[in-house]
Amino acid sequence: MCAAAGGIEQVRERLIEPLLEDGWTVAVTLTPTAAVWLETSGEREKIEAATSLPVRSETRLPDEQSPHPAVDCYAVVPATSNFVAKLALGIADNQALTQVCEAIGAHTPPVVVFPRINAAHAGQPAWDQHIGALTSAGVHLIYGEDVWPLHTPRSAPGKPLPWAAIREAIDSSIAKASPR
Description:
The mean pLDDT is 95. 44% of the residues lie in helices and 7% in strands. The chain is built from eight helices and three strands.
């Protein structure tokens, strides 16, 4: 899952392709705004070519089969503050949020979320409650000053995402969920 935040332009090269190289099947669902961003940049088509699966951003009709295989882990990279807030409140107003909200409610498969936020987002009065709600629901958050030091708004364009921590969280979540 991808929301429209900085770093989305690198998700294919830095996350999807390495996962594919390690033998994973990767299916991508975008928020509506992320779909526009990646369509405009040409990345959507590159992701589809790399994964051999359609990139989803819209809901399917009730009688249509999902074009994606069964999911072992949802990774929301990057997640906006809006995505995190809606997820914590159970607001599923687009395809990406619907899928992740269902996974949280069903307690399977594991959910990993990297909030690509700044200090102003984290300073909102409800932010700590959103983080607490997701943590108590078992969501693996890639979050904290040790992973993503917060910055003032618009002061860190191009700041690289913590790709190693994101990959480690995905691998760890899948390993914990897999029966031995």
